[in-house]
Recover the amino acids of this structure.
């Protein structure tokens, strides 16, 4: 199925979402301006590497709590999503503050980068 005019999509909190799902979104929903993928543990840099080159109109992306996302995804966003205004990478433990700083300096329209607790291991207490 193709949704060439779809502008906003939320797949947040769906553990069934995989890299193949994200790649398909990129390929079939090229008009997206907002993409919510928070709390999707099956998403990695590999899936975003296949999707992001097709999402040139993207202005908002939420990847918070996606622990398999790394600095590589931020480099892809810098390269392909030049219209980004907001990025949420809160609680992404494999992202460095150095790359966040670079992202902020490279994207001309970027207004907000939410990056609480990046690069931090899960602090969940267990018995």
């Amino acid at each position: 199925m193709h949704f060439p005019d779809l502008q906003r999509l939320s797949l947040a909190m769906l553990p069934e979402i995989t890299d193949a799902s994200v790649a398909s979104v990129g390929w079939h929903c090229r008009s997206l301006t907002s993409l919510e993928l928070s709390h999707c543990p099956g998403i990695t840099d590999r899936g975003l590497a296949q999707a992001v080159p097709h999402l040139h109109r993207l202005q908002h992306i939420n990847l918070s709590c996606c622990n398999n996302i790394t600095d590589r995804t931020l480099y892809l966003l810098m390269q392909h999503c030049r219209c980004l205004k907001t990025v949420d990478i809160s609680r992404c433990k494999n992202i460095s503050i150095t790359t966040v700083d670079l992202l902020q300096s490279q994207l001309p329209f970027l207004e907000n980068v939410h990056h609480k607790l990046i690069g931090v291991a899960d602090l969940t207490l267990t018995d």
